[in-house]
Amino acid sequence: MNSRWLSLVSVSLVAFAGFVITWQFRHYDGGGPGPYGPYESLAQSFLRGEQLAGITNIVDRSQVGNTNTASGAFQYADLILPTNARVFMTDMTGPANYDKIGYYFYSAYYLFPREIGVSVDQPTRMAYNGFLGRTSESDQEILASGFDVRFDITPDAQLSAKRLKALAMRLPTNPAGFNSNYDTVMAFLLPFLTALAGMWLLRFLFPALSVQMPLLEQLAYGLGLGMMAVAALTLGVKLCGFSGRGLILSATALGGIAEIWRHHKALFASIRDGCRKMVKSLITMVILVAGALVFLILFRLAGLQGLADGDALRWMLKAKIMHLCTGSELVQWFSSPRLAHAHLGYPTLVPSLHAATYDSLGHADEFVTRFWPAWMLLFLLVALASLYRAGKNWFHAPAFALLGLLLLPATQKYVQWEGSTLPMVFFTVLGFMQCALWLMGKDRARLGLGLTLLFGAAMAKFEGFIFLALVAGWMLLLPSARPSLKPSPGFWRVLAFCFLAALPFVCLRVQIPALHYESGWAGYALHHPGSALANWPGLFMILLARMFVNADFAGWSGEGGQLHWIGKWDGLLSLFNHSTLGLAWLCLFLAVVLWFVVPTRRPVIVWTLAMLVGALAAFSGVFASFVNITSLAEVIGYTTDDAAGRYLLPVLLAWFATMMTLFFADPSSSATTPKLKPGQPARGGRKSKR
Asked: 628 vs 361, which has greater pLDDT?
């Protein structure tokens, strides 16, 4: 590549990183009014960690930094109410109370396995526009319906509780595991041990790659494969009727210790060489120190903060069920209509990881669940850094770009949440990157690893199946990307691993009904294909626009069933999305430069853009199917940053990583075994006598 163009790209990446860092310093105090308000800076995370560390009461700790102002009250109710108490929440039914469903999510998680009712004439059941049934304000009627406690949500969004009969109340004391150093250490080590043990899987499934990749890069892919195995083993053991307490911790600890012993010389050598390089380069040392400080803040906060994401309560409820229940009891809870809000039919990789943490600790402790996404982000950046080190002489652009990626508002938000967004980012980015390397070098092992990781994304969320189908489909459509149909030597091992990873979820899924209304999106589209097709292009346009520009500028309403632009111009700040700070524009710039400067990379660019457009088309098609059961105005709400950001961030970061791979990756230089010079004997061999 022409050095002038590479210099321009490198300067652009450094400038982007500088812009992100500037945002962090400028909005350290919360950002104030304007578009920056919803996003938290790293300094605020540090201050919240300081605040949480001084709180020794579980109720107060649950309340701080939570999106629901009544979360502490639900935690308190769990401490004092007997486990067989039945709770009734008033004024929750009907479309007018749809905005209160979040309170039910919190109550269902914190008070599980207690029954939570919202209707006196039927069991709790949620529809697309709220809870069904009839509420009541009469204590006598609520008591006659079999409930023991009444919950009311006050106008100032607080919880008011009232006993309707005598109950054996408990003293509100902290649980035994709360604020436990043991819990923190074990929850911190479990993902790392999973990565170490997963390196055995990498070596077994892809032996050629395990030789080529640096040790730190192997750890990243070991974490991905290890998470798939841990999730499958956790759920599989539960379905077989065993508790599995301590099983995952023991298995990963043994595997991790064995891998440390196997690689202890290479590990120490890598640390020694890394320190030497860091001392030689001031810029490298500054970037590494800055990244290390960020992760120190994130890891500290991960062991202190309670549940932060209301949507993730659905995932955490499933984790709690998996931890407490086994066999047929587990299947019964996953078939319960009153828990339909938890998306019980979704893939179970993420809740299984949290359940594995609970099993390792011996009890549910939601204050230590964010170590999983923090480790995922760390190993993701480590893998990218290992691959991009070929660009170290160009203003250290890859290192700056990854630092900017780490400090993005969206990255900082989702790494502190418990849901599936960070797992989706982890699997999708690494999967796309490996597929891009296949397109560059035709190494079939990289294609196999990429598809395996995308299968891991599919086990995290159904959106992962979209990515997997898109990648596989376009691989077959593009002649230059079409792999040989002859199976590689390790094909059957990889296929068997994916089958075993999915088997526990499949066994669970065939035994439970589809309870959430969103599960029927395909049926809605087939029953009203004309309406779905008519709304599809408009929703696609909105998703595409909001990936690039500010949500206030890309604002639409759906009044009367028609799209109306209601956006407002706020100067140049309107031209980029504030959660990703213009990353989409940077990706587009990289793609354009690469298209004209390196024509041989055009097939990869076409494939990458096809993945992006295909994902947006698939998401907008699913959203369009709901127009007939709700309304266009409500469906547009799915495209906001808080909702669609969970879907768009993985594919956006995958686009960025792929472009970076095309510019800076040098897969041949990542081999840990040195290349032989002509005439040089292989290790342990003899030189030819010729």
From this structure: 361
Q: Report the candidate in 275, 654, 253, 149 with the shortest Cα–Cα distance to residue 436.
A: 654
Of residues 366, 322, 360, 369, the one with CA closest to residue 245: 360
Backbone φ and ψ for 138, nearest 5 degrees, come out as: -95, 120
Altogether, the residues listed in the chain come to a count of 690
DSSP output for 537-590: HHHHHHHHHHHHS-TTTS-EE-GGGS-EE----BTBGGGS-TTTTTHHHHHHHH
Residues 87 and 117 sit within 8 Å (Cβ to Cβ) = yes
The b/e string for 36-61 (b: 16+ C-beta within 10 A; e otherwise) is: beebbbbebbbbbbeebeeeebbbeb
Strand 130-131 and strand 86-89: the pairing is: unpaired
CA distance 474 to 438: 13
pTM score of the predicted model? 0.91
- The residue behind tokens 């098609």 is 621
Q: Look at 353 and 632; give whichever has higher pLDDT.
A: 353
Token pair listed for 196: 């170490």
**Residue among 215, 217, 184, 221 nearest 201 (CA):** 221
> Is residue 111 predicted with pLDDT exceeding 90?
yes
Q: Which of 344, 338, 364, 342 is nearest to 116 (CA)?
A: 338
pLDDT recorded at residue 525: 85
CA 128/CA 131 separation, integer angstroms: 8
Cα(343)–Cα(321) distance, integer angstroms:
13
**Sheet of strand 86-89, all strands in order from the earlier edge strand to the far edge:** 115-117, 86-89, 149-153, 159-163
Question: Model confidence over 619-668: pLDDT tens digits?
Answer: 999 998 988 888 888 888 888 877 778 889 999 999 999 999 888 876 55
How many other CB atoms are found less than 10 A from the CB of residue 679? Answer: 8
Tell me the pLDDT of the chain averaged across its residues: 86
Element at 111 (helix H, strand E): helix 101-111
Give the tens place of pLDDT for each residue, 25-45: 887 665 433 333 457 788 888
Q: How far is CA 302 from CA 65, 410, 568, 686, in A?
A: 13, 17, 37, 54
H-run or E-run covering 366 = none
